[in-house]
Design goal:
252 residues, mainly alpha, disordered C terminus
Length: 252
């Protein structure tokens, strides 16, 4: 499979690498989770692929939700090394994405039906998931060592995006290095996923409605406005149930 990077791919590598590196130097688990869930990769991969928002983007949300919780379960309960858990999660993402693309029709009806179902599931999880005390963690590697390592990893992950179409917009480019940096607080990372669903699904819906009139770029810009408008109250509500005392601990 040939791979010819474009300008959006280069912007993606830089932006995602900065996003993942920022996670490494933030101590508080809830801040790591917040940074991880910013839809920068979705935006830039969508622009790189040049494909309108459709059902395949929503299928990617199912895949990233599976990835995050599989890594948590394998590492915390299965006692798998974090690198092994992440590798298994990436494999599950690719395999599940491949299956969903072949099983789910990419139609307007499937987009709106799946979007509503995801919002209902996200709202239920947001209200019912509990809070667990987890230690903070901040990498001790200097940034001039950490950033090149993340750049190299994210560049390799770009190779798979072409074969997954819209599912690739949710590919865990940030979550692969991010899960490693948040390995002490994977529950808090998973706890952020309902907020991710409740903000990114409306973002995709707004982009889909707007893109026939103002193009993919304009539609994504409208989507970002919707995302930010929803993010603030949802994060405020989540953090009100997750006090700061849960964020003290490891800096090793």
């Amino acid at each position: 499979m040939s791979f010819a990077p474009n300008l959006f791919d280069l912007a993606l590598v830089l932006a995602v690498s900065l996003q993942a590196t920022a996670m490494a130097y933030l101590h508080a688990p809830r801040l790591k989770a917040l940074i991880l869930c910013l839809p920068v990769p979705f935006t830039l991969v969508s622009l790189s692929l040049g494909q309108p928002v459709d059902t395949s983007n929503l299928l990617g949300i199912i895949c990233i939700l599976t990835y995050v919780h599989l890594v948590r379960v394998l590492h915390h309960y299965g006692r798998a090394p974090i690198v092994v858990a992440i590798a298994a999660g990436v494999g599950a993402y690719i395999g599940l994405g491949w299956l969903l693309l072949r099983a789910v029709p990419i139609t307007p009806r499937s987009f709106w039906g799946l979007g509503v179902a995801l919002l209902a599931a996200g709202g239920l999880m947001h209200r019912r998931q509990g809070v667990r005390p987890e230690p903070g963690h901040r990498t001790q590697l200097p940034v001039w060592v950490k950033l090149p390592l993340v750049l190299a990893l994210v560049s390799l992950l770009l190779i798979v995006k072409e074969s997954l179409h819209g599912v690739a917009t949710m590919f865990p480019m940030v979550s692969v290095p991010g899960a490693y940096e948040a390995r002490h607080s994977l529950w808090t990372l998973g706890r952020q996923m309902p907020v991710f669903i409740l903000t990114v699904v409306p973002m995709m819906m707004a982009a889909r409605l707007a893109q026939p009139w103002i193009g993919i770029e304009g539609g994504l810009a409208v989507g970002w406005l919707v995302f930010l408008a929803l993010l603030v109250p949802l994060v405020r509500d989540l953090w009100a149930r997750q006090p700061g005392r849960l964020e003290c601990g490891s800096t090793a």
